[in-house]
Amino acid sequence: MQFSSIIAQNLNLQEKQVYNTLKLLSEGATIPFISRYRKEMTGELNEVQVQEIQTQFDKLNELEKRKEFILKSIEEQGKLTSEISKRISESSSLTEIEDIYLPFKPKRKTKAEVARKNGLEPLAKIIMKQNERDVESRAVQFLNKDVPDVKSALQGARDIIAEWVSEHEASRDRVRKEFLYNAVIQSKIIKGKEVEAEKYQDYFDTKDALKKISSHRLLAIRRGESEGFLRVNIAPDEENTLNRLYPLFVRGCTESTEQVKLAIDDSYKRLIKPSIETEFATSSKEKADDEAIKVFAENLRQLLLSAPLGEKRVMGIDPGFRTGCKVVCLDAQGNLLHHEAIFPHPPQNELLKAKDTIVKLAETYKIEAISIGNGTASRETEQFVRGCRFTNPVQIFVVSENGASIYSASAIAREEFPNEDVTVRGAVSIGRRLMDPLAELVKIDAKSIGVGQYQHDVDQTKLKKSLDQTVINCVNLVGVNLNTASKHLLTYISGLGPQLAQNIVDYRIQNGVFKSRKELAKVPRLGSKAYEQCAGFLRIPGAKNPLDNTAVHPESYAVVEKMAKDLHCTVTELISNKELKKQLHLANYITDSVGLPTLRDIINELEKPGRDCRETIREFSFDPTLKTIEDVKIGGIYPGIVTNITNFGAFVDIGVHENGLVHISQMSNRYISNPAEVVSLHQQVEVQVLDVDLQRKRIGLKIIE
């Protein structure tokens, strides 16, 4: 397979692993399927490694396409030599092939082109040899109607030399190295914008080594630049860089030499520096984007895999003051049973009436848990609900409502609840995301869920691709109930997509629940390839064949049946009896297609058939003394929930409107390079307040270990 050896070397993998992975991808296998059910072929690569192989392959393909274009362009000019062709073909660097192409690249009307048309290239060549001691006398020979004087002649010759210097590979390489090791990124406030750009005051006059600047800092500077508040410059020390360029072209010490030096200075300032600066601005932005997207994807993964409450009857409350709190009651499958509004807060202050309503609804609909959104009036609503006296035990949770408003106005919400308004849909989303965060959050654009930074500043195509793959990986890791999963959840299952997901839902409506995985073959347009890719991730609780409710792939059913036969028991007995499984010798079941990785996965799944891999949810309460930032005391210790993780720390909700920041240096008594080493999204932590800035609405925190 093309590029296998290069990718294997880049990722420190065996070529066979990469070759087999690329082969599977080319045959239409999905990343979750490959990482879960083709471990023998890939050498047990996980989904992240498979994704990286795919990414590297795509990059190398793009590089090949660019090489083909460049070779064709140079050939059409009649300037393609075997040496140039060989260098381009063998290069693995986009920067290198662009440098090779630069002298042949079609140009707009440049100063050098004008000078050539005016007949000054011979003079430039004479000066470049640096043997001429009286350049002005020689320049007189090149005067004409377009070159009226010596000054114009020398300027034109220098313009041509400047372009030669700019297009010389060695000169660009030296400047590039100076940028790589010594470039500084400098930001300055644009005069007159100080008040308007107050949120960027940390960057009004800063200098950072480009190679060391953190991704969040660079993205903040770039955002300030794009919004018209900051002026940004990237460059190494000019004098040092010019001193690195001179030895490439300067010879002797004549009048010609001085002209060459002037041309080099001009070339660097006018041509090379802007070009290389753009190159490093782009590459540093790409690096910052990649780091931010990586953090965003990991946060999203943790959020999607948050502990679910499970199939319980839930009351969802979208809190509010003036407009009241929207209350919905849901059955254990998340279906809407009832909705109404209550007004326990100012200005209405119908506290007793609201309590009576909540208690009656809880009793009428046998509510087992209440889910409260964490937006406006959340703390007040939580305290009000905790003050209610319920007949039966009711668990109370505060959940993130990020994205609920996006969902409520979406086509998906209108399709689910065509006769309800956005407030009802939002409250339903708040209730459902307690029951099953994954099933509900897949309906919302991942960028709107609020678990990243600078999501609007990074490469949107890269971000979408990464987040979409994260959702796919999470959905397939957990698996879904084939008979209850929504079309939107089924869409993310390996091998399906929107149309097949809709076909499955339509089949359920027309024929009732699926009784076996085999029945998937009857779904319109769901062929053998799609079945192979999706079957292992779809569960059927209560199916006649107990393996249909496990992650064991149908292609491995025969292996399990042979195990049961060898132990003189049924598959059901094998699943339920730990002692029977201990008697198995896995080596006896190894075949050409089934190895130990698959057999170990089968045994692990038989130990916990159909069990959700996510953790169990725990109740949490904020400190009742905290309502606003003014209540927060320096030195105070409070319970909190991690709401967002960045490269520089984590944001923690301690029960006031403003989330506090735990800087990475305050997360542990030991050195850590990544906040994810210490905390995870929605983790319950205990924090101490280090400082409170009331003017800027900022709270500095430290994690208590």
Cα(first) to Cα(last) distance is 50 Å
Q: Considering DSSP H and I runs of 4 or more, what fraction of the residues is helical?
A: 40-55%
Mean pLDDT: 94
Number of helices: 29
| Content of β-strand | 5-15%
**Unreliable stretches covering 5 or more consecutive residues:** none
Shape descriptor reads: globular
| Oligomeric state of this protein | single chain
Q: Kindly provide the radius of gyration, computed on alpha-carbon positions and rounded to a whole number of angstroms.
A: 33 Å
Overall SS class: alpha/beta
- The side-by-side strand order for the widest beta sheet comes to 6-5-4-7-8
Number of strands: 15
Biggest sheet: strands, sense, closure? 5 strands, mixed
What's this, in brief?
Helix content is 48%, strand content 12%. With 705 residues, it is an alpha/beta fold. Strand 12 and strand 13 form a beta hairpin.
Task: Describe it.
The structure is a single chain. The protein has 705 residues and is α/β, with parallel strands linked by helices. The chain has a five-stranded mixed beta sheet, sandwiched between helices. Strands 11-12-13-15-14 form a five-stranded mixed beta barrel. A three-stranded antiparallel beta sheet has the order 2-1-3. α1 packs across α2 and α9 (121-129) crosses α15. The longest helix has 50 residues, at 255-304. The model has no long low-confidence stretch (mean pLDDT 94).
